[in-house]
Write a structure and sequence with these properties.
two-stranded antiparallel sheet; 4 strands; alpha+beta; two-stranded antiparallel ribbon; elongated
Length: 76
């Protein structure tokens, strides 16, 4: 695991990434987790759509097999 320096840039906080983590984009995506946060260098949806392209043409052609809906009575 590598470390990065945290510093102030005007009124903002910045992180200086080591050379090995350099990205070729003007912005990144951040996600807070219980352990800290993740820096994602590309759009998370991009990965999803790339995965969809790998599915076969007949994927889910027959529909989804789902159990019958459960009827519930709600008390007020």
């Amino acid at each position: 695991m590598m470390r990065a320096k945290v510093f102030r840039n005007g009124r903002s906080q910045a992180i200086r990434l080591p050379r090995e983590f350099r990205v070729d984009t003007g912005e990144v995506y951040l996600k807070r987790t219980p352990e800290g946060f993740l820096v994602i260098s590309r759009d998370p949806w991009e990965v999803f759509f790339e995965g969809i392209e790998e599915l076969s043409e007949d994927f889910m052609r027959s529909g989804r097999v789902q159990p019958e809906l459960e009827r519930r009575e709600w008390d007020k």
